[in-house]
């Protein structure tokens, strides 16, 4: 492999030379280069490039002689082309090939040493050639063109003839490779902490690792740093920045910025870099802003890396022991001014020096000037922080952290002016804004950097800058939040939250007792709630379910994680765990409102909670005092006050807070936190004790506010109704007076006659129900928050006061939102006190509630909400509540007797409580008729079982087979041994054998029964014959002794406690069947319906009471002339259905004469008209004539196309309820055949529905009525009617022409007939 033909020369070198000889010799023999041979020259140069790229291990085998040979060839071509300075010798394809060959040589250590080291003049010539290739040649203008250009603008650049960007890119790579390496200057990527990926999607990396370092690097650097080489260095910077600004190719712009970065590394010391800061900063700004947010992310990230290295390198050494080098500053002064003149539109004129000699590096004047210039440029590029690519935002965070951590000594000297416009303010806001980014690749490292600044690099100067920014941001926050742009609102909130997170406990210097008034009222206005939304409550997870922005999950083992598990285990049970969603007036989007609430929680964790609690509590007390004095009602600001207090308390306890993440980047920070760990834990424990003490004080205020809201709202509504009546009476009196005055003028009477009436009307009370609901929901949410803060041990002490109030609002009759909020609050208390359900919580502490109920039920005039507590207690606890209230039932009855004539809220609450007791005893949470539901789900369960598809006659069900086995075992009476053998025999039997065996056993059983019956008759005949023979000789005493003795009357078993209580409640409920309030009548009917189920085994007690109520029940069925009375009628029909199921004997005596005519009349109205005048023909009547004007209207042909949606019209509900009631009545009560025929014909027409007016669910219910008739023993009639309907349709040939709805009706008839045949009906 390494056999040498010549000493020191490898075989690969010889082969490469042989391949290079032909193209190189041809190029060296050229006398000139022109348009005729330029393509051939380019081809030979590309051939050389191909040979070099395919050469194995060029660093080893490409010797210095070969490099010299290739360089000589390139120089000859360059000479023939006159350094590419003439337009006629300037071919872009030739320059591209030449630059590619030069790039290969510069990438090799020996190549770089051979070309760049020995002769600086030659190196300058190479740089000049490459510069011209990149920048282009000036175009020679005619005299007329020169005059036009002078007239247009003097500042306009001279036009140049530039090559394509691909050719310029090759030349630019050669320039960068020609620059010397610097291993002492730190790289920008050395501070990458490993968050996210820093790999950029450029085609080829151009970094310092392309070759090994050689002594020629020091020589070239020395030449560049000489004073006579400053023009060359300036020319490099000008060309590179100009290319980075105007080039169209993205790779070209990025490589140009890499060249600037490499030049800065060549300068090494901050003293040499400092003079170039103004010009390079202005050029970088111009390059970044040329395309704005449309600029490629690879260009922007490279520019940010360059800027970060320059600023951190220069400003990071200020404050060290090194003295500034004045001569270095002087050497670059002129070039710096020229660069600033070139990019003067990017800098402030006042920031530039008017003298040729700048101030010394590191002096106060230099720092002030540099800070002003950088702040101006940073302000211009601030819009790029919103770039769509995440890597740009990450580089902004890296830049902010590097400069803030390395340059604090220089940056903090600038303290005058606005903090947000200074360099530290811009960088701090940039870093904080990145902590709120949606991408974890941006937010996680930004949080880590912010945590490092707060812990490891903490300085009072930087904290002072943060305080100034916070003051300005908080003062402007309310103005921004009143705007229309939600994105701007979210950004402002996130920046403010990040600043609060950065400052921590130092926020107490900003928000305290003296400054609280500045921020409090504007923020309360911002939190104004427009309404509450109770929908989608399953998506909300309550107080502990709040996850701070940027957090992906709960901390393992935390209280939040335990709550999440607790909720997920009970999901789907119908329980609610999240409070109603708030819709704010100014924070329209949910993201905006959540961000502001999270900001308040963060603020509560970093400030003194007593400062907030005292001020907010006093505001709430002032509002309550104004309401008590009849000066108005609670306003939206009071609701916002409670909401703000809730969020501050939750934040102060450490719930739902954002964190800085894991900022343990270095071992030193870990050691520092270990030293501070014990002190920090002690402060946290002390702070939590302080928060719990404040929470208990707020709890007292909330409970008082809830009680006063409950009482004062009723009084305010009463006063408002009285005032409206007074105003109405006053208006009527004024109208009467005007009429009298007119009559007096007409008849000449005195207008002043008569006594004037006066009305004393107090000031209007602006009661707002929506505000009342929102305030109470917020107070209930606050109680839940306090329960979480205090914990189970401390909050159990407060249950004495809290439980009664929560149950009172759980039974609220006016608002479902209040009920939902109270239920969620009870769920939180249940979780905190470690109970499984709310019922368990109430049972364990029921004595607190029962005692208060007993004390207040005797004074319902001052405690009108007590019945709500009763209802909620029974509803939540269930059956055990009946036992708890055994001693209080008498008090409830006495109160009901006292309030029954008033029919107000108290009376309704008491009756609902008794109704709930009956429901609990009946074994249901709420007895609602299934017929009121739409669809097949409302069908009777017995009919649903009968409607199942019959099994084939050849297949025997498992139930029959099992029964046959058990029957055989019982009849044969086998023991264990025989039982096992019999099982083996039965297992081998076929279904047919089992069927035959079963039928034989049935026949044997019938024969045995007939035989025994015959023997019994024979015995009776013998006894009668013997008795007949002795009748003539028997005495009267013997005859009396032979007579059967009269059985003693059986004493009925005594009523159970529940039955006795139910009977008492049933007796009380009858009074309210004739009440004027529909709610009272519905509650009374619900009590009757539940009592029928409870007392169905005691007909001797139930039937007399129902008999007394029967006229009122029938009256409720027949009267439906009003909208609200319609629901009373539905409930009455459900009562009749319950009677049919449980008291068929009673209903059978009253059905035909009282209810059945109405049912038939209603069905005649709903069913289509028959074509023939058969028996039971139906006539169409208006629905209003039967069920009143409030029954709605029929919609044409709903049919199967509407079966998927629920129907909630009153007519549909009435149809379903009535048909299901008929199904149960027919099955349980014997009805005459004539009435059955009438009903059967009506039901058949509803099934067929030839007019297409009925909903499919109604047709299904009508089919269930027909099935019930067949099951009840009227199978012959059903068969005749359905067979005629089916045969008529098939015989007339209408089946083929029928539409989908008619086919559905016929198929239903076929199914009913199949059902009858299967069950032998």
TrEMBL record:
Start-end of Low complexity biased regions: 143-152
Domain TTI1 N-terminal TPR: 217-437
Pfam families: TPR_TTI1_2nd, TPR_TTI1_C, TPR_TTI1_N, TTI1
Region (Disordered): 142-163
Biased composition (Basic and acidic residues): 154-163
Bilayer-spanning residue ranges: none
Annotated TTI1 C-terminal TPR domain residues: 984-1270
Name the UniProt record assigns to this protein: TEL2-interacting protein 1
């Amino acid at each position: 492999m390494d056999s040498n033909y010549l000493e020191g020369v490898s075989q690969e070198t010889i082969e490469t030379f042989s391949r290079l000889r032909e193209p190189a010799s041809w190029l060296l023999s050229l006398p000139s280069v022109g348009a005729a041979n330029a393509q051939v020259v380019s081809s030979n140069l590309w051939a050389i490039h191909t040979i070099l790229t395919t050469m194995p291990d060029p660093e080893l085998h490409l010797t210095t002689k070969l490099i010299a040979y290739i360089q000589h060839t390139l120089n000859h071509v360059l000479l023939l082309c006159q350094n590419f300075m003439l337009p006629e010798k300037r071919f872009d394809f030739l320059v591209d090939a030449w630059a590619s060959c030069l790039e290969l040589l510069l990438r090799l250590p020996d190549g770089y040493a051979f070309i760049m080291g020995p002769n600086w003049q030659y190196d300058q010539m190479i740089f000049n050639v490459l510069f011209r290739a990149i920048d282009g040649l000036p175009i020679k203008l005619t005299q007329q063109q020169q005059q036009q250009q002078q007239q247009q603008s003097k500042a306009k650049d001279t036009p140049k003839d530039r090559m394509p960007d691909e050719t310029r890119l090759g030349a630019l790579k050669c320039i960068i490779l020609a620059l010397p390496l610097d291993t002492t200057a730190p790289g920008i990527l050395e501070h990458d902490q490993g968050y996210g990926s820093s790999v950029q999607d450029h085609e080829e990396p151009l970094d310092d690792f392309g070759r090994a370092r050689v002594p020629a690097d020091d020589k070239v650097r020395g030449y560049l740093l000489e004073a006579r080489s400053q023009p060359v260095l300036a020319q490099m910077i000008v060309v590179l920045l100009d290319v980075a600004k105007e080039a169209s190719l993205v790779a070209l712009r990025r490589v140009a910025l890499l060249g600037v970065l490499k030049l800065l590394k060549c300068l090494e010391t901050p003293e040499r870099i400092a003079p170039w800061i103004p010009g390079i900063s202005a050029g970088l700004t111009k390059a970044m802003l040329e395309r704005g947010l449309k600029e490629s992310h690879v260009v922007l990230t490279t520019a940010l890396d360059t800027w970060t290295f320059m600023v951190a390198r220069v400003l990071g050494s200020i404050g060290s022991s090194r003295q500034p080098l004045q001569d270095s500053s002087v050497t670059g002064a002129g070039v710096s001014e020229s660069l600033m003149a070139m990019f003067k539109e990017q800098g402030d004129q006042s920031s530039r020096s008017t003298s040729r000699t700048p101030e010394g590096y590191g002096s106060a004047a230099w720092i002030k000037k540099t800070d002003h210039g950088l702040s101006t440029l940073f302000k211009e590029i601030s819009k790029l922080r919103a770039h769509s690519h995440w890597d740009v935002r990450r580089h902004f965070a890296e830049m902010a952290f590097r400069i803030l951590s390395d340059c604090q000594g220089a940056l903090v000297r600038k303290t005058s002016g606005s903090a947000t416009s200074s360099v530290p303010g811009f960088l701090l806001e940039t870093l904080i804004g990145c902590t709120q980014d949606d991408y974890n690749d941006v937010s996680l490292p930004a949080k880590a950097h912010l945590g490092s600044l707060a812990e490891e690099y903490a300085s009072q100067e930087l904290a002072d800058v943060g305080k100034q920014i916070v003051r300005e941001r908080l003062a402007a926050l309310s103005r921004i939040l009143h705007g229309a742009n939600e994105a701007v609102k979210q950004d402002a909130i996130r920046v403010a939250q990040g600043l609060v997170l950065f400052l921590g406990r130092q926020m107490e210097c900003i928000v305290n007792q003296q400054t609280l008034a500045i921020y409090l009222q504007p923020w309360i206005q911002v939190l104004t709630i427009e309404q509450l939304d109770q929908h989608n409550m399953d998506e909300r997870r309550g107080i502990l379910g709040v996850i701070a922005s940027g957090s992906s999950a709960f901390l393992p083992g935390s209280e939040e994680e335990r709550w999440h598990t607790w909720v997920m285990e009970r999901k789907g049970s119908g329980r609610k765990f999240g409070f109603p969603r708030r819709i704010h007036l100014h924070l329209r989007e949910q993201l905006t409102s959540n961000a502001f609430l999270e900001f308040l929680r963060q603020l509560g964790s970093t400030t003194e909670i007593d400062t907030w609690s005292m001020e907010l509590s006093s505001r709430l007390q002032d509002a309550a005092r104004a309401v008590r004095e009849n000066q108005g009602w609670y306003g939206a600001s009071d609701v916002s006050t409670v909401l703000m207090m809730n969020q501050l308390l939750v934040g102060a306890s450490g719930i739902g807070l954002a964190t800085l993440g894991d900022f343990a980047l270095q071992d030193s920070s870990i050691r520092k936190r270990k030293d501070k760990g014990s002190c920090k834990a002690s402060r946290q424990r002390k702070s939590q004790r302080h928060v719990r003490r404040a929470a208990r004080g707020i709890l007292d205020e909330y409970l008082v506010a809830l009680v006063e809201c409950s009482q004062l709202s009723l009084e305010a509504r009463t006063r408002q109704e009285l005032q409206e009546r007074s105003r109405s009476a006053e208006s009527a009196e004024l109208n009467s007076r005007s009429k009298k005055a007119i009559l007096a003028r007409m008849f000449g009477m005195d207008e002043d006659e008569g006594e004037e009436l006066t009305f004393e009307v107090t000031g209007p009370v602006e009661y707002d129900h929506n505000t009342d609901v929102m305030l109470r929901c917020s107070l209930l949410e606050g109680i839940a928050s306090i329960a979480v803060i205090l914990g189970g041990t401390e909050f159990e002490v407060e249950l004495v006061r809290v439980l009664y109030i929560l149950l009172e609002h759980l039974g609220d009759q006016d608002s479902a939102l209040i009920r939902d909020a109270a239920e969620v609050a009870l769920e939180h208390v249940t979780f905190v006190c470690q109970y499984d359900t709310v019922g368990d919580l109430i049972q364990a502490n029921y004595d607190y509630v029962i005692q208060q109920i007993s004390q207040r039920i005797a004074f319902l005039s001052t405690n009108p909400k007590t019945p709500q507590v009763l209802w909620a207690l029974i509803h939540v606890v269930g059956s055990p509540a009946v036992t708890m209230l055994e001693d209080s039932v008498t008090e409830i009855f006495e109160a009901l007797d006292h309030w029954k004539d008033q029919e107000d809220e108290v009376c309704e609450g008491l009756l609902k409580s008794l109704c709930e007791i009956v429901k609990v005893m009946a074994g249901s949470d709420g007895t609602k008729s299934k017929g009121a539901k739409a669809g097949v789900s409302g069908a009777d369960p017995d009919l649903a079982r009968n409607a199942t598809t019959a099994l084939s006659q050849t297949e025997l069900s498992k139930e029959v087979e099992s029964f046959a086995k058990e029957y055989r075992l019982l009849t044969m009476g086998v023991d264990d041994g025989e039982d096992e053998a019999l099982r083996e025999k039965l297992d081998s039997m076929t279904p047919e054998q089992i069927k035959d065996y079963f039928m034989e056993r049935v026949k044997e059983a019938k024969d045995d029964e007939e035989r025994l019956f015959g023997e019994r008759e024979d015995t009776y005949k013998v006894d009668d014959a013997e008795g007949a023979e002795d009748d003539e000789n028997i005495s009267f005493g013997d005859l009396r002794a032979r007579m059967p003795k009269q059985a003693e009357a059986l004493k009925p078993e005594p009523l159970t406690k529940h039955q006795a209580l139910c009977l008492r409640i049933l007796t009380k409920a009858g009074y309210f069947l004739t009440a004027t309030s529909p709610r009272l009548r519905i509650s009374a009917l619900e009590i009757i319906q539940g009592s029928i189920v409870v007392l169905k085994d005691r007909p001797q007690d139930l039937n007399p009471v129902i008999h007394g109520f029967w006229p009122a029940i029938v009256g409720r069925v027949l009267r439906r002339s009003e909208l609200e009375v319609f629901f009373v009628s539905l409930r009455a029909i459900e009562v009749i259905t319950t009677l049919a199921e449980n008291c068929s004997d009673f209903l059978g005596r009253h059905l035909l004469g009282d209810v059945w005519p109405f049912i038939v009349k209603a069905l005649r109205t709903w069913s289509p008209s028959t074509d023939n005048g058969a028996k039971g023909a139906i006539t169409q009547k208006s629905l209003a004539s039967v069920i009143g004007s409030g029954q709605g209207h029929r919609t044409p042909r709903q049919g199967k196309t509407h079966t998927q949606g629920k129907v909630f019209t009153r007519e549909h509900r009435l149809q379903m309820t009535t048909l299901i009631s008929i199904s149960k009545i027919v099955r349980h009560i014997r009805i005459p055949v004539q009435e059955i025929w009438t009903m059967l014909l009506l039901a058949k027409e509803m099934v067929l529905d030839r007019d297409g007016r009925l909903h499919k669910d109604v047709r299904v219910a009508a089919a269930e009525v027909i099935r019930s008739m067949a099951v009840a023993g009227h199978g012959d009639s059903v068969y005749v009617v359905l067979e005629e309907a089916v045969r008529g349709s098939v015989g007339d040939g209408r089946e083929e022409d029928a539409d989908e709805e008619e086919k559905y009706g016929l198929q239903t008839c076929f199914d009913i007939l199949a059902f009858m045949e299967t069950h032998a009906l």
